[in-house]
Amino acid sequence: MALKTTYAPNHEALYRLAEQQGGYFTAEQATAAGFSWERLSDHATRGHFLRVTRGVYRLAQFPASPIEDFYIAWLRCGPKSVISHESALAVHDLSDIIPGEIHVTVPRSASRRRKGIRQHRNKLRPTEITRRQGLSVTSVARTISDVARSGLAEEHVGRAIEQALERGLTNRKALFAEAKRRGGRAARLIRKHLSPAGKTA
Prior knowledge:
This protein is an alpha+beta fold.
């Protein structure tokens, strides 16, 4: 989310923005809210803002998230980026897989590579994006089709489908729609695990 640049620190605007992002914000967002580098550094020294990594901060009154690395990756990749693939499975608590890189879907125009972040260039529809704890993440149906298409082991895909349906995180209609739209391996695995002979029947 972008903020209109101001010349005096707007604490309320920065708080509202960070609140929507799990308490996290970037130095660029703070600057847009009127915080000079000196003032930002002063707040960090006083303990009002906690510097979690270069260019990314957290309001002190917000507890650190167990998925803090995902917030950092998301904010570093920009406001139009979305946590996706295996990383989105973890956010939705549908997998115990720990990928070596954080997966983020970014606009096709994105070019900059970032260490430790696996970027997938694609255009997502609004219905394929949701928010979890202030984090922008692909919807459950889109996430399952993404990991199925990218080659995740079938057993993990099947387990994710089963758990998602059991917990009401998605439904068969949404998954069948993804299968029809994406085709290929994603369609094959989704349809197999939704069929009468599948595990999720």
